[in-house]
């Protein structure tokens, strides 16, 4: 099977700490945001999608914060804010008929969204997916598919996977959903099981050494185990240099 760039990305990233897909997804998103800020900030198609998305999601909007990028961020945010403001200027309070079902429902349940402002709320809401999220999902799919397809075979990814921190629970589920071969299934499951058993051993050692009777013992491989466990169950933190 021919090797793709995603194969070599995975092979190299398996030698780094944390979920390999979390890491590569975060790195791909960083490259996307860099390219946007330094090369594509005036791209009409991208600006249109950003206006429709009402900007970036919380995570990726704050991912734009980096040295020297204030002008690019200002261009993007002004464009989106102008779109939002135009919608707001056209918005109206839509008085509901006194005997309408919606008004009765609101009277019975004050927690329901107000029907009089529902249309403006809808227009102010994202009309499209955050472009950075969309790009991240594309790269996530590529890396998961490549991992499953090229796990086995000569010089496959299995050995690197076995020596790595494996996948977080979310990405492991997504990888399993792509497995259609029993041999690949056994290899992937056995490798991940060994990784998590090793992590449980580290957590047990942290707990043991927290006992006053063993606090004098030197720390070993268990150091950082609690953070690795969070990453294993909930995913690694994204962003530059943040594997855990």
Write the layout of secondary structure elements.
Elements: H1 5-13, H2 20-39, H3 44-52, H4 58-62, H5 70-90, H6 101-108, H7 118-124, H8 131-149, H9 158-162, H10 169-176, H11 182-209, H12 225-234
Helix pairs in contact: 2-8, 3-5, 8-10, 11-12
Describe, in plain words, how this protein is organized in 3D:
- Helix 2 (20-39) packs antiparallel against helix 8 and helix 3 packs across helix 5 (70-90).
- The chain has one domain.
- The model is unreliable at 240-244 (pLDDT under 50).
- The longest helix is centred in the last third of the chain and has 28 residues, at 182-209.
- It is an all-alpha fold and 244 residues long.
- 61% of the residues lie in helices and 0% in strands.
- The protein has helices at residues 5-13, 20-39, 44-52, 58-62, 70-90, 101-108, 118-124, 131-149, 158-162, 169-176, 182-209, 225-234.
- It is extended and about 70 Å long.
């Amino acid at each position: 099977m021919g090797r793709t760039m995603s194969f070599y990305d995975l092979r190299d990233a398996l030698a780094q700490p944390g979920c390999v897909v979390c890491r590569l997804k975060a790195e791909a998103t960083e490259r996307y945001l860099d390219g946007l800020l330094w090369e594509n900030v005036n791209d009409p198609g991208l600006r249109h999608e950003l206006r429709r998305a009402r900007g970036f999601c919380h995570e990726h909007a704050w991912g734009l914060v980096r040295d020297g990028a204030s002008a690019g961020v200002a261009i993007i945010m002004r464009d989106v804010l102008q779109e939002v403001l135009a919608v707001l200027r056209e918005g109206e309070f839509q008085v509901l008929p006194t005997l309408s079902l919606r008004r009765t429902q609101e009277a019975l349940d004050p927690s329901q969204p107000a029907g009089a402002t529902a249309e403006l709320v809808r227009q102010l809401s994202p009309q499209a997916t955050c472009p950075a999220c969309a790009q991240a999902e594309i790269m996530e799919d590529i890396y998961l598919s490549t991992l499953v397809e090229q796990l086995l075979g000569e010089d496959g990814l299995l050995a690197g996977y076995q020596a790595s921190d494996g996948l977080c629970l979310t990405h492991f589920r997504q990888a399993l959903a792509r497995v259609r071969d029993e041999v690949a299934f056994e290899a992937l499951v056995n490798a991940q099981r060994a990784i998590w058993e090793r992590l449980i051993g580290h957590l047990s050692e942290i707990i043991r050494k927290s006992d006053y009777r063993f606090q004098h013992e030197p720390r070993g491989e268990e150091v950082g185990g609690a953070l690795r466990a969070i990453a294993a169950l909930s995913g690694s933190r994204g962003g530059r240099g943040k594997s855990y």
